[in-house]
Amino acid sequence: MKTFILFALVVCVYQPVSAGYGFAGKSLIFSTKTDNSYVRLYPSRWPSLSAFTLCLRAASEESRGYGLFSYATPRTYNELLIWSSNEELCLYLGGTIVKFSLPKMNALLRHICVTWESEEGLVTFWVNGERTVQKAGKKGGTVLGGGSIILGQEQDSVGGAFDIRQSFVGEITDVNMWNHVLPACKIKAVSQGYYSAEGNIIDWAKIHFTVKGKVKIKNSNDCSSQNIFPQPVG
Prior knowledge:
This protein is mostly beta strands. It has a single domain, classed as Jelly Rolls (Sandwich), CATH 2.60.120.200. The protein has helices at residues 2-13, 184-192, 225-228, and strands at 17-21, 26-30, 38-42, 51-59, 66-72, 80-85, 88-93, 96-101, 110-117, 122-127, 130-131, 135-136, 148-151, 170-178, 208-212, 215-219. A hairpin with a 2-residue loop joins strand 6 and strand 7.
């Protein structure tokens, strides 16, 4: 009897994990609050960074706070975190938090980029190609390499310690990251699909990943400039 009970418990708590390569033309759908559903990304390299551009598209109708992108290292669990809360987008860089007052997330997919560079510590958000004010962030710092990237949850330890109250519910797609600050015109072009968004740290079309729990991978059904204006052949 004890053996049977133990087996039944294991079956109940087990969450299947699947692995794959590349999300070209795909979106991640997080349909409900959980503390065990997420996608983990595995870049081929993530050195320590003195600058970056991080872009994604997302939509959520949740009115509470949640993480859009969570990167944790043994040094700090909020090594790099994009946090959405009511009418704010925040960038966490370790113990530094830079807040921006922006329209509340809703059911419409919006393109979000954030840039940071260490020399002056400037942080800037871009929403649908429009720039916010520039704010002072982590001057002279670095983003430590070799950590854990999670979509759908906010890490309170490396790769885990998730809180259902901070889980993401909605859609995320087109996550790309570069190890430098993209020029303004390229960020605008990326937001409109006119510039090939192939990050040299995270490339959404080629990234290795694992999926756990109740996450659906669906066609994004987006119309890009490449579909409207196909490249000539020959």
